[in-house]
Amino acid sequence: MKNRPEDKMSVHESAVSHVTGKALYVNDIQLNRMLYGCIVTSPYPSADILSIETTEARAYPGVLAVLTAADIPGENNMGPVVKDEPCLAQDEVMFRGQAVALVAADSLEAAREAAGKVRIDWKEKEAVLDLRQAMQLGGLLSPERRICTGDVEQGLASAPYFLEGELETGAQEHWYLETQSALAIPEEQHIRILASTQHPSETQALVAGVLGLARNLVQVEAPRLGGAFGGKETQASHVACWAALMAHATGLPVKVHLDRQQDMSITGKRHPFLASYKAGYDEDGRLLAVDIVLNSDGGAALDLSAAIMERAMFHVDNAYFVPNLRVRGRIWKTNLPPNTAFRGFGGPQGMAVIETIVDRIARERGKDAAQLRKLNFYGLNDRNLTHYGEEVERNLLHRLFNELMESSGYLGRRREIDRFNHGNTWKKRGMALTPVKFGISFTTSFLNQASALVNLYQDGSVVVNHGGVEMGQGLHTKMIAIAAETLGVFRSSVRISPTDTQVTPNTSATAASSGSDLNGMAVQDACIQIRERLEWIARERLFASLPGSPSPAQVHFSEGWVWEEGQEVNKVPLKDLIALAYRERINLSARGFYRTPDIHFDKEAGRGHPFHYFAFGMAVSEVEVDLLRGVHKVLRVDILHDAGASLHPAIDLGQVRGAFVQGMGWVTLEEVVWDAQGRLLTDSPDTYKIPTFCDIPKDFRVKLLEDAPNPLAVKQSKAVGEPPFMLALSVWLAIKDALSAVDDHEKEPPFRLPATYEVILRTCVALQKSC
Amino acid sequence: MNGRNYITFLLGQKEISINLEGRNHPFTRLIDHLRDEEGLRDVKEGCGVGDCGACTVVLARPGPEGRLEYVPVNSCLLLLPMVHGCQVITAAHLARNGILHPVQQALVDHHGSQCGFCTPGLVMSMYALWMQDGTTDAVRIAKYLSGNLCRCTGYLPIIDAMQTAMQSRDVPGFQTANEGAYSRLVQIREDQAPIISGHLPHTYTKVFRLSDALDLLSAHPKTRIIAGNTDLGVKFRLPEEPTHYLDISGIAQINGIRYEAGFLELGAARPLEKVRVDCRESLPPLAEMLDLYASTQVRHMATAGGSLGTASPIGDLSPVLLAIGAEVVLQKAGQKRRMHLEDFITGYRTTALQAGEMITHLHLPIPGPGHYNRAYKVSRRKEVDISSVSACFSLEIEEGKVTDLRIAYGGMAAKPLRLRATEELMLGEPWNNATVEEGMAHIRQSLHPICDVRGDASTRSLVAGNLLRRFYLDSLEWQQQQGPTL
Hints:
A: alpha+beta; Aldehyde Oxidoreductase, domain 4; B: Ubiquitin-like (UB roll); Uridine Diphospho-n-acetylenolpyruvylglucosamine Reductase, domain 3; 3 domains; five-stranded mixed beta sheet
């Protein structure tokens, strides 16, 4: 084996396949005699189904099956937590785009044409299409939750200063580049599903449920995903269930691949929130008491809304200590597609509220907002207990603040901005620093487990299979690094086989930023087991004959060689040791397992230790707003992010930048609009705009915090997938800061999220009538 | 009309002839042909409406000076016969003898792919730019690539990769590898007989001579004319009623541009990306608007004739062309006429085009040297978005007074408008804040814009007025540059 430069800073394991186009996704897989499935969906947001007539559709040339709820052999459910979402609607529909019937045909055109010939008689019903309307009507999807610390009423009453308000934050469409896809293949004994899913085990369970089969008869493989961002955590299983039903009915492989318009129209989004808040604070701007009510639009079924609301409630403190804090969470039912997981998982909506409060206090008190934030940060030794009773340990906020204020030149630039604003009437600049403290772990504690299988072959090459799904985040690349280092082989000797419920069962979703933490530990555990067996053989057979101490010395494995402590000159090729171990009938395969220790949470009491640790980050953003056109430019962004001892700095930087730009989309550009009939108006990239190349900061400086090892995760690293998303709140508040300059920071600008050009113009008009 | 029913093109280095009467009917999208018939699964469909760039492939076509032009296009918008006489290149074609192309290698080295789904399309846009020129300017690169969406990376590493790849434009082989294609394509293009295919109710004809187009239009006056198919190609579906499609993109007579004293004569089928470059010096506001017009891929296919022919109320070219007083040249068999654009667009998506008539040229007067001209566009997203409001202003002042002013708006009514009443109001007045505010108020009073997903009526109205102020403020800077005489 040769020492290759890429082994030092390896690239994404699929990078070469990506750039040459060899990387295949579910929709790229073609089989002989494969059918195409089409979904017949509800044209009404709320209606009774009086009858379904499928004769004409069935008779259409090329059609092999037309299925309705009556044709489901098992349970008509695909709700992941609560069974409130049928696989195919039976008597009524709850949202526009809900699946009612399935058509399988030998071409996509035939399936589409025939789908249009399924005749359904409807009786339209009153629909709720808006969060405020749902709140008035009072339909909750699940009981109110609350978390409380201290005495909020008393705290608010006795605080010298007080403010209150409302904040609306908008929905966000995932816009993964690869739309939802699944291919179901009937095999001799079982059904095999290739699915673009973040949660193969749940896909397996739901498919088994609708087919009425035991789970051992359903195999789910997730090859690579073309992006997911939470959008394929639960709702990818829907597509898989539909494909499976059609494959089961016809005995033939069936592919379902949603086109972009259908994908955007029928799948859930990031939850829109409406928050109301009250805050009491002292003369310096120190928070004394905060009372927040979070209302989310859950859509027509619960999906993951309860866990998302829970995470929002856990993050209404963000980085700030509030001695008296009460947060209540209410999930409202509307006749829209069930909203679902999206990077941050409620965290962004929760943090936007407290960041608004802190921003307002700074303006009210005439203080620099960054300094006011620092004043309220969780303390290093005291003032460090969250509202749910978990201590903020290894707090990096103060370190990040000091380093970032310095590296971004915050104070000098603040003066520059003030000068610019005094000299310009129609253009204003603004700047904001915002922190992130994000809790790492699934808040449903039992989900924090993972397993992996590691196979070492006689030539020293390795296959690793683990429960995590590769969707672009570089998980597999990190797993290769962990396996290679632990086993002492080159990274190029390790291959990851596609995620497969038959190889690694009972997995949790690749979500909650937990992929590397959980699977990395499981992979490491399996590799350590194999290495220990090899060490034993090495001591027994290889090194025992060498001169030196008979006592067990440390055995080193590295880059294809093995040697005893102090005996590197006599190193032996690892391959020889493996061959020897095989002949000695040593098991060269191991299953690793990991469960996160010491996490628990009592939902009733709202107390516990839900997070294994916190990830931290901080950003300073500067913008320029054109008050006449409502448009803005992001001039410069400085990010300092905590990824522990990064498993792979290039990949982690990619996560930070990508999350930040996606967050910029949420806070500035992306707006989901439904009409009064529940029709999604923004159902195409023509009307729904995600950031382009030209929308990123003109000057974009991203750094990982150095010398910050995290003793609580694999190889002292930290989870990185979601936390940087929320750093984009700095862009949102920088725009607000710029608008606030219209009135020399005297008035609180009315504001909402996203700050589209229309919001900016309206705010501007409100602040200065002549503008 | 005599013709043939097959097309010929190069796919990579392989020459392909397809009989359009077979199962590949002429309305197959290029992406479907590449994926389903040629097995090129590297071409991904991300949206199907030409907005994400995942399906980008490069077309190489013979250009001036014996060189090939490499243009990125959305294969989801193109119909298969549109690539006749071109070379189609996809990401699968770029590596040579197992060595990655420099743009591919740079993307790998800079960690420029995450999920990888947008990557093959992005590689093709990068390849087109790499073949075209060696720019390392980050802003130009970002602009060029902005028709390719990526949801993972935050784009920065891709810009870095493009800059790095530009350092290796002299790597032996990759620049010259395709030189043989030029003469092969020229040879394919020698035959100027029309390509006629399809069966009623839907036929497709591609002609190479203007006379053939006019003949066909006179035989079938209701023919739908296509050039880049960037408008019809969005969710392309054949209509129920019988329709003849006429592809005019190959007609050399209407593909060029002629510079004359005081005006430009622009071929209606000239791709807008070329127009953008052509008019940079002579008609800056048109170039300014085209900088923000759709994506690189779309501009390489879309044409001015198509943009005006659809008479969209938000078509971004119209305000500029109205403000400079453009005329359209219309032809039908035995008849040629010229008409002011203002008269040509008669209402919401309606024009004065007669049956059997087509736009062949645009007559674009070049504003005199004393004029200050600017175009503005307000949209949710700056790049690759349809405007909420667009506007163009053309101003001449003497001794501080307005001697000529033309104002035109898009997105403010059922059709693009020239605001003659507002112009009238301001004519002869001093060019100052008071006059401008009067003009703003007049604009807001007299226009009653629509309310849609791109902006509500009150915002549009507010912006429309504000754009006049923006123009005024910009004109002050221009005046300063002009010196004290103004």
